[in-house]
Write a structure and sequence with these properties.
This protein has 150 residues and is of the alpha+beta class. The chain is 27% helix and 19% strand.
Length: 150
């Protein structure tokens, strides 16, 4: 009887998936059999100024939706980019400049592909990567975007 109870506990623990009871969106999708939408993101932003991090959802699959404050703009901007969540190459040479303490983490799916991108503003490459995502991420505290050239 004890062996049966132990087996039940082990199976119940496995049923929650690798991410535990909460897990990631991919873990929950695999565990529930419900597919995550192709353009479905979670955006976590820490402004680095002592305020609590902010978390938004953004769904662009069937029109803009979610809790993101600029959902329509963000969806339109991302749709116009070839590979908005491509990681920076390991051998990229970046300028040594500091853009601020802001960090962000974008997870989910885009164009059917998994997204798990950590962002910061610690050098020229990462500042450019952050800025390229436009309305998906807020303008850093105390800074204004540069006007377009030309």
């Amino acid at each position: 009887m004890a062996l049966l109870l132990l087996a039940g506990v082990l199976l119940a623990g496995c049923a929650t998936g690798p991410g535990g009871a909460g897990g990631t969106a991919a873990d929950r999708s695999a565990a529930t059999g419900v597919a995550q939408a192709d353009d479905d993101l979670i955006v976590e932003v820490d402004r680095g100024n002592g305020t609590p991090p902010e978390t938004w959802t953004l769904t662009c699959a069937a029109g803009a939706g979610g809790t993101h404050p600029r959902a329509e703009e963000a969806c339109a901007h991302l749709a116009g980019m070839a590979a908005p969540f491509a990681p920076l190459p390991d051998d990229l040479v970046c300028t040594e400049q500091y853009g601020g303490p802001q960090t962000a983490h974008v997870t989910g799916r885009w164009n059917g592909e998994p997204v798990d991108l950590q962002l910061s503003r610690v050098d020229g490459c990462r500042i450019s990567q952050w800025d390229s995502l436009g309305p998906l991420l807020p303008v850093p505290v105390g800074e204004q975007p540069l006007p377009p050239l030309g």
